[in-house]
């Protein structure tokens, strides 16, 4: 029976091989267990049918055996009553029921043997299923751990080497450029202030000259006045 063979063929190697080929081991393992559950359900139906056949042959064999005993007793009673013909017919029917009883017993033995074999296989399937459920938890934990480690390794392998480093370099250049522009602006402003100061200084010199001229004029006037008085 294929449904039993599928479960018997399950092994850790087979599961690991499927995991190696799968993008998502967690989904695969859950699906695989669901498939196993479906197989077990089908197997249980098959076992139930075989058990029903076993019980049917057992019941028929028991009924035939009871008829054999009954006809034996009836044949004895007929002889005791002096009715030999009735006793003969009872024994003939007894023989027919005996043949049936033997046939049903044989079929019952075969059916029971098959049912027992299926029961054992179903038990093995359920046992294997429980093992796979336990392994699933372990494998999922390993898969998640491996994915996390892979993610970290990928992140660390490129950490600070590509985009981030280039970004920092660009920002460093930008800062240096801003600093240079600030210095240039400061120098330009200083240059403008020096020119104003020089112009202002020139203006102050003119005033000083005018003041000196006025003083000289006053001195000259005073001198001329003194001469006239004399």
Automatic annotation (TrEMBL):
Coiled-coil residue windows: 26-224
Keywords: Coiled coil
Domain of life: Bacteria
The keyword Coiled coil belongs to this UniProt entry's keyword annotation: yes
Protein family (similarity comment): Belongs to the PspA/Vipp/IM30 family.
Record protein name field: PspA/IM30 family protein
Annotated organism of origin: Marinicrinis sediminis
């Amino acid at each position: 029976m294929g449904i039993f063979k599928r479960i018997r063929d399950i092994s850790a190697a087979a599961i690991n091989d499927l995991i190696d080929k799968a993008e998502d081991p967690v989904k695969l393992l859950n699906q695989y267990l669901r498939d196993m559950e479906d197989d077990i359900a089908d197997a249980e139906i098959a076992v139930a049918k075989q058990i029903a056949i076993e019980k049917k042959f057992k019941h028929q064999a028991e009924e035939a055996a009871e008829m054999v005993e009954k006809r034996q007793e009836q044949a004895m009673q007929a002889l005791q009553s002096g009715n030999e013909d009735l006793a003969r017919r009872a024994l003939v029917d007894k023989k027919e029921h005996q043949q049936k009883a033997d046939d049903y017993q044989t079929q019952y033995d075969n059916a029971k043997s098959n049912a027992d074999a299926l029961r054992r296989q179903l038990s093995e399937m359920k046992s294997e299923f429980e093992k796979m459920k336990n392994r699933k938890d372990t494998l999922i934990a390993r898969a998640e751990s491996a994915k996390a480690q892979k993610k970290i390794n990928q992140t660390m392998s490129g950490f600070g080497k590509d985009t981030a480093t280039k970004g920092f370099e660009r920002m460093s250049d930008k800062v240096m450029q801003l600093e240079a522009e600030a210095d240039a602006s400061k120098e330009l402003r200083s240059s403008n202030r020096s020119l104003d100061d020089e112009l202002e200084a020139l203006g102050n010199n003119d005033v000083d000259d005018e003041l000196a001229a006025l003083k000289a004029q006053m001195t000259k006037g005073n001198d001329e006045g003194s001469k006239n008085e004399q």
